[in-house]
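Lab notebook page, bench 4
Experiment: in silico fold of construct C2
Operator: M.H.
Input chain length: 553 residues
Purpose: comparison with the prior construct
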Amino acid sequence: MTHDSTANIAEANESLNNWRPYFSFSTDHKVIGVQYMVTTFIFFLIGGLLAMLIRAELITPALNVVDRPLYNGLFTMHGTIMIFLWIIPFNAGISNYLVPLMIGARDMAFPLLNAISFWIIPPAGILLVSSFLLPNGPAQSGWWSYPPVSLQIPPGQPINGELIWIVSLVLLGISSIMGAVNFVTTIFWMRAPGMTFFRMPVFVWSAFSAQLLQLINLPSLTGALILLLFDLNFGTHFFKPLENGDPIIYQHLFWFYSHPAVYIMALPAFGIFAEVLPAFSRNPLFGYRSLAIATLGIALVSIFVWVHHMFTSATPDWMRMTFMFTSMLVAVPTGVKAFGWTATIWKSKLHLETPMLFAMGGAAMFIFAGITGVMLAATPFDIHVHNTYFVVGHFHYVVFNTITMAIFAAIYFWFPKITGRMYAEGWGKLHFWLTFIGANLTFFPMHPLGLQGMVRRIASYEPQYQGLNIIASLGGFLLGVSTLPFIANIVGSWLYGPRAVNNPWHATGLEWTTTSPPPANNFEEIPIVIKPPYDYGDPKYSVIEDSDNGESV
């Protein structure tokens, strides 16, 4: 063992229980990544509590838990928090931690900008949640914030929930745009020697594609929110229909970002599946190049599908037909991905550790989400179920049953690398089964509810819908309970878990060739990449773990 190697292991051991950097203004991409992940998980818990209040109200047809304005605030804040303060920034956090390690870089291209991007998020999130303390409560117009509903503010309330909502989202948008500049620059210019684009892991392709979408589409939403702010507080008439404004323009600007945002959230999840499934099936990733190209294909096509959210918004027939076609076209590259995942694990000897369970469960539920997505892309069907619980069920099969499941797979998979500790496998499997069962109990009943005509965003409903709502609410409470073993496992294992070797899964990525946790500069020297990704089973590139010192040979 070299002197440098000994020093790196000593540095990793010293950092194992050193929590102070995580509460400081650090420019280390690994510290920033953990800061993102922990901060956003706190907001995930807040958003989950709001969801449980919503489901508590919906157990019975009558309004008997909260009043209507508060209920409107609950679903508005729940959706906003889960999208803009949980999934999108968590994906930025895990990408922050992994991308430089996966491409053999020392850090992100702009470390100071990276730190600023993160430190915008806590005050923006706290500002958003603090709107519950205002006299009229938080914003109540849904996470879409469509005008003219979002402009109906009581007189004499210049500081109101809608204003706070807009300011918070503009700040979060600025953070995401800054982060996107950093990611695209890092992946394009800072790859190690030999790390060609077709030697990059699919997770890096996914992060690259998602951040390109942030750069292209996010300014549309940010601009729309600024114009909405002017209408709200400065007397302009961009979106006011009674003042010759056009609220449909807001919908176009909003969805031009907010449908690609689904893929900004989903693409990193697809990348996680591509890392976890080969590692626990011991097979190369089937069709690697096709999956990498499909990643860019999803990003490209997703730019041209936004109007399918507006089929009932006086959209002309030619536009409906055009966007029905483009919306269905997304199924082609996503189908390529689903086929690749399935073929990777086909006839394999599967190792069903917790990361693999979450990856397989999330991938399986994504197939169902994709089927209902194609249904919603068809204009006649979409008009029939528009604004019903069918749409809510489909959307949550994407954002929770696919993306959040993938996030949990990622946490368990890279937990040894990030912390230098192993988690408790039994607690991890308990977390999986509670989450998998709870997720399907919660969101599957919403599909028949929507087909039967139950409208979304209502606090009281017709009695014939109660049975399925009881099942959905009980599932929602089970989802809330499922986070408890996860928190206990992660906190307890980080503090007291057994020491992890550098590569406990015998995975092939560059991130597994350094110490756990990695040293400040990631690698003793910049690696030279000579092998393809996912070379499981190739004797030329076999990885042997020395369990005495944690080195990979």
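Observations: The mean pLDDT is 93. Residues 62 and 477 are 19 Å apart (CA to CA).
Next step: discuss at group meeting.
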